[in-house]
Every structure is written in C-alpha cells, then in structure tokens.
C-alpha cells in the first residue's frame, strides 16, 4: 500500500466508519478489515492518528485499528505478519513526538506502545526506554505528561511478563532506572505540595497528575523489579518514605477541603500509596519484615485512635485495615508448632508482631471495632427501613470485604480474634455481660451497641465455643428479646435471629429447637424482618418440626412470592428445598401451591441463571418426594431431569442444528422409558 496514494483513501473510509448510518458504516468496516493484512496499512494509520488537524473520531478509530493490529499481526509467526522493515519504521514513528493533545487518544497511544514493547523491548527496540527517560525530563508540560503516561504503561506491561528470561530483563531494567524513577517521583511530589500550600490549584492539579503517574511506575518497579528488594537501599528508602508522604498527603487532604478540584486525585494518590505497601507485602513478605512495626503503628494510629479523625476517609480506612489483616494472617510470619523448625525470618517477623500486639493494644482494637465500626449508621438504618430486602443483599455481597468498610471491619475482627482469642475472649465476654437484660427502646445508642456486640459474638462463635453457655443465654435472654414487639427493637430481633443462626451449628441443644421454631414462625410474619429470616439454616429433627410444618411452609411460600431480589428468592428457595428434603413425604399435602408457582418463577427469571439453578434444585426435591416409594426412583429422576434440560435447550436455541438433531436421537429411548414408568 503506497503511503501517498493510500492515505486519502484510508482517511475517507475511516471517516465513513465513524458514521451512524449502517448503510455507510458496514461497507467501510468491511473495507478496513480487508486492508488489515495489506503492507503499509499501519503506516498509513500512524500518519492519520498523529495528524492533530484531523477529526478526533477518525483519529480515535485509527488508533484502535492500529492497536488491534498489533495483537493480530505483529508477531513474526502470525499469519500475514508485518515485515521487519515496516515494524522498524512504526516503532520509530511511535516515539518521535509525545504531544498528543486529546487525553483519550494519548492513553490509547501509550497502551499500543506498551503492547509493542511487550513483544520487542529491549531486543528489537533498545531505544524505547532511553527515549522515554529523556522525554520525561523536558519542560514542556504536555510532552512531559504524555511521555510519563507512556513510561507507566510500558513499565506496567513489562512487569506483567512471567517467563524467567523476561523476568531477568525486567530486573535489569528496574536496577538501571530505579534511582531516576525515585528522583522523578520526589521532584513531582515536592512540587505538588509546594503549589497546593501556596494556593496555585491549576499548577498543583497538573503536578499531582505527574506525581500519580511516577508513583505508579515506582509501584511496578518496587514490587516486581527485584528478587530480594530488602537488600536494595533505594527500594527500602522509598518504602520508608511512603509513610512520611502519606502523612503529608493526609494533612493536605484535611486542609484543602472537599470542594477542591484536587480532592479526587489526591485521594487516589493516597490509596495508591497504600497499594504499594499491600502489594509489596503480598509479593515479598520477608522483605517487608523491617516495615511491619511501622506499618502497624501507622495503620492502627489512623484507624483506632483520634489521629485519624477528620483525616481518614472510608477507602483509606479500608486499606489500612487490609494492611493490618494481611500482617496478622500472613503465613510467612507464623512459626511452626516447634519453634526450632521455623526459619529465622519467620521468628523475627513473629517477634515484631508479638511485641506490637500487646494486651492494651488488642483490647483497644477490639473495643473500637465493636463499639465504633460495627455500629449501624443512620444511613444504614434508613436504607433498611425503606428497602429491607436491598439492604440485606448489599450487606452480604461477595468480595465486598476488600472494598467496603463494614465487611472489611468484620473480616478484620474475625482474623484478629482467631489469632489472639485467648487475649480477646475476656474482653468480648465483659462487653456481653454489660448488656444483660432488655434494653430501653428509647435509648437508640444502647440498642446499636447491643446489636454490635451480638454481631461480634456471632462472628466469633467458633472461638467462643468453650466460653459461652449459649443454651442458657438463649433461654434466659435471647428468646425473650425475640418476643419484644416494639418497632424500635427491630434491629435487635433481626440480630438475635442472625446470632442464633451463627451458633446453631456450633452449640445448640436439640430440645431447644421447638422454642426456636415458634419464635421463627412469629418473626416470619413480620414483613420488616422477613428478609433476614431466610438466612436461617433449618437443621432439625423432623418429628420436632412437623407441628410447625404447615404454617412455616405457608409463610415461606408467601415470602417467596413477595420478595423481588433474585438473591433473596434464591435463599428462600434454598430453605424450602431443605424443608422438603428433611420432612420428605410429609410435605405432600402442602406443595401444590409451590408446584404451580415454579413455572411462573421460571419465566420471570430468564436473565438470572443462578435463580434458575435454585428452581431446578427445588424441582428435583419435589420429584424425589413424589416418587419416593416407586422402584428405580433415581434412574427415572435422571430421565425427568434430562427431559427438562432438553426442553430448556430447545427454548433457548435460535434454530435447529445438526448437533441438536444428533442429541435428539437419544431422546426416543428416554421418552419411551418415561412413558413406561409414569
């Protein structure tokens, strides 16, 4: 493809490919697809997206086609691969100027340069890194930023390579540029702090962006660039400097207020500092040993003392808690049962942990977690009041402990209590004993404290097995609290039934269960509490449960119809399936309504595969109950499931295919067996 003659044609087709008219768009896309394998096509694209006078949408599309072409045709072994001559020209053109004025296009150019670097740097592209290092030194703000952006994406990409030879190359690169990267970060950080305190917001915003990018580069170099980073003075110096910089940035966030334009970027930078520590701890636990004491002092200070008040924001608190948790749980820091079998590094780390987590420190952490972080907030109480089902679903999200404050505090509490249960058990029991008897419904704070303490006892159930007589507690206090009907006592009733659910598989006498069933039946009639009841694990003796079977099943079925969240319906179906499975044929008089409802629920759950799985599970239990006393039950159950799966397959197939016809050849035998059976 001749560059001079082709540029105009390609530009015209790219312009057509940005059209909203499909009659224009489709032919243009087809033409571009044909050109992808033509020699010279990517050189034309390079000329187009580096021409700042052209339409932004056209240049954006040119960048995307270039980037996709790297994935498909840059490797030597790829079909229709680019020639070495053209690749050499393209590499030179990509780093000639770092002056792209449009942020989105600049990011895409940086990403595509990183893609080429992953394949060619440093062997076929030795000039890339030196060019980037020179370009980040220039005084032109735009060029400096674009070069720094590219430097980050290249570093990030090279750090992700995992083959031994590639790791060796990255180690060499990190050793060669680490000092420069540190000085670059320090320069931009100092510049930002000076500008923000003199009130130059525009300049500070620009410097903060460079601080963030240079810190991202250092994060990759520090975490992935050294085999034994603790032996490198500059690496450890940078990591120690992180704590000082964190303090400066936190104080800065306090002073600039929430309306400042830098606020969002400032918080992102603070979080990035914590990610540096978390990543380093994850990848190099023994190299992190010299930082354990300082990390714990820093995190505990901001999370569990007055030092964090007015400074620490929620995401930062979560990150600090994750740092504490990772140190507490780290297996590298746990000596074996026989100390002499442990490595010196493990013993050293364990010694530092032990000296830090003294009784006063652990007691303060425990009390603060329960009495401060476990308390339901006004926002949570309002959400529960307005949307109890949505509140329950949000509260039990999958990986939310990593990012949300409440789940994170609970996970930290569990880990610390497990690690130091002998120290913390008396502390928690003292809190429980202070809450004996009913709580004044007019005292909102006392109700919230009780809810928090009960939450802690539920989370630590396995650790408290030998320390709490749960049966007596249930009879003497918890059962009575379930019967308090005042509207303000709802949080306690909800928490008590959850608490019993936590303990029932740990320690709960079977002869107490009829009393519990009675309480649950009453709670199921409370529409505000109903969404938490379905979490209850119905472990029971059938003969004890039969007197409550009809009313319980009816209430659960009503609940299934009333709730709207997919997650809630799944849990209710799970409980219903458990009940059907346990009471077996005793359920037959009551399941008619459920059998009629399941087809409707199936239609309503088209977009929820997990809910459909729960429906199938319930259906299997119903089939087992129906054919309980007939011969060859299980073989015919499988036949029925096969037929149901065939029906679902047909319903979701857009057309009849040869593969479906081949499967259908097996169906006649299954259908024949089914007709003979029933």
TrEMBL record:
Record GO biological process: protein import into nucleus
Xref: InterPro entries: ARM-like, ARM-type_fold, Importin-beta_N
Gene Ontology CC terms, in alphabetical order: cytosol; nuclear envelope
Record flagged with keyword Glycoprotein: no
Subcellular location(s) per record: Cytoplasm; Nucleus
Broad class of the protein's primary localization: cytoplasm
Keywords: Acetylation, Cytoplasm, Nucleus, Phosphoprotein, Protein transport, Repeat, Transport
Segments forming domain Importin N-terminal: 28-100
Keyword Transport found: yes
GO molecular function: small GTPase binding
Superkingdom of this protein's organism: Eukaryota
Annotated family: Belongs to the importin beta family.
Subunit field text: Interacts with UBE2E3 and RPL12.
Name assigned to this protein: Importin-11
Organism: Gopherus agassizii (Agassiz's desert tortoise)
């Amino acid at each position: 493809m001749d560059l001079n003659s082709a540029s105009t044609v390609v530009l015209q087709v790219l312009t057509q490919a940005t059209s909203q008219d499909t009659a224009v768009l489709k032919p243009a896309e087809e033409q571009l697809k044909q050109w992808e394998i033509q020699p010279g096509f990517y050189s034309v694209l390079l000329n187009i997206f580096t021409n700042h006078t052209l339409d932004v949408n056209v240049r954006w599309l040119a960048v995307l086609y270039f980037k996709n072409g790297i994935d498909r045709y840059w490797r030597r072994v790829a079909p229709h691969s680019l020639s070495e001559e053209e690749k050499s020209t393209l590499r030179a053109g990509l780093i000639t100027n770092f002056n792209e004025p449009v942020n989105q296009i600049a990011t895409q150019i940086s990403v595509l340069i990183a893609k080429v670097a992953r394949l060619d740097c440093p062997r076929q592209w030795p000039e890339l890194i030196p060019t980037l290092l020179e370009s980040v030194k220039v005084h032109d703000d735009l060029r400096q930023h674009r070069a720094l952006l590219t430097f980050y994406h290249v570093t990030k990409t090279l750090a992700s390579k995992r083959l031994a030879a590639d790791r060796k190359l990255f180690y060499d690169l990190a050793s060669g540029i680490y000092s420069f990267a540190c000085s670059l970060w320090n320069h931009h950080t100092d510049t930002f702090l000076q500008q923000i305190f003199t009130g130059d917001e525009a300049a500070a915003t620009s410097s903060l962006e460079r601080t963030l990018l240079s810190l991202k580069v250092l994060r990759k170099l520090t975490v992935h660039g050294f085999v034994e980073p603790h032996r490198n003075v500059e690496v450890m110096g940078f990591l120690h400097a992180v704590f000082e910089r964190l303090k400066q940035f936190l104080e800065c966030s306090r002073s600039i207020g929430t309306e400042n334009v830098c606020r969002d970027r400032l918080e992102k930078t603070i979080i990035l500092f914590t990610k540096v520590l978390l990543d380093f701890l994850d990848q190099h636990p023994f190299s992190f040993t010299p930082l354990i004491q300082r990390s714990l002092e820093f995190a505990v200070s901001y999370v569990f003392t007055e030092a964090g008040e007015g400074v620490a924001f929620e995401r930062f608190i979560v990150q600090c808690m994750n740092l504490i948790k990772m140190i507490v749980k780290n297996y590298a820091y746990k000596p074996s049962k026989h100390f002499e079998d442990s490595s010196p590094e493990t013993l050293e780390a364990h010694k530092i942990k032990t000296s830090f987590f003294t009784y006063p420190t652990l007691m303060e952490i425990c009390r603060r977690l329960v009495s401060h972080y476990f308390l339901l907030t006004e926002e949570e109480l309002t959400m529960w009041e307005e949307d109890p089902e949505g509140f329950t679903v949000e509260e039990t999200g999958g990986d939310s402990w990593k990012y949300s404050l409440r789940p994170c505090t609970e996970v930290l509490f569990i880990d610390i209590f497990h690690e130091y249960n002998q120290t913390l058990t008396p502390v928690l029991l003292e809190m429980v004993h202070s809450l004996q008897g009913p709580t004044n419904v007019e005292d909102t704070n006392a109700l919230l404290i009780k809810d928090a303490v009960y939450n802690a006892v539920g989370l630590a159930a396995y650790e408290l097995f030998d320390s709490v007589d749960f049966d007596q507690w249930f009879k003497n206090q918890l059962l009575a609290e379930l019967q308090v009907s005042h509207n303000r006592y709802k949080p306690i009733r909800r928490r008590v039934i959850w608490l019993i659910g936590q303990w029932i598989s740990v320690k709960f006498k079977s002869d107490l269960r009829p009393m519990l069933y009675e309480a649950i039946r009453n709670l199921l009639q409370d529409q505000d509490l109903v969404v938490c009841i379905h979490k209850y694990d119905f472990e029971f003796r059938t003969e004890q449960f039969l007197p409550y079977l009809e009313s319980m099943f009816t209430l659960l079925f009503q609940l299934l119809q009333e709730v709207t969240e997919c997650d809630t319906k799944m849990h209710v179906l799970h409980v219903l399936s458990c009940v059907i499975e346990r009471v077996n044929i005793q359920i037959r008089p009551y399941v008619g309504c459920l059998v009629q409802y399941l087809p409707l629920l199936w239609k309503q759950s088209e977009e929820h595969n997990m809910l459909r799985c729960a429906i199938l599970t319930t259906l299997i239990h119903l089939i087992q109950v129906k054919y309980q006393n007939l011969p060859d039950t299980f073989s015919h159950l499988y036949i029925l499931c096969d037929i149901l799966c065939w029906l679902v397959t047909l319903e979701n197939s857009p057309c009849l295919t040869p593969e479906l016809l081949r499967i259908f050849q097996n169906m006649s035998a299954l259908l024949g067996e089914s007709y003979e059976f029933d």
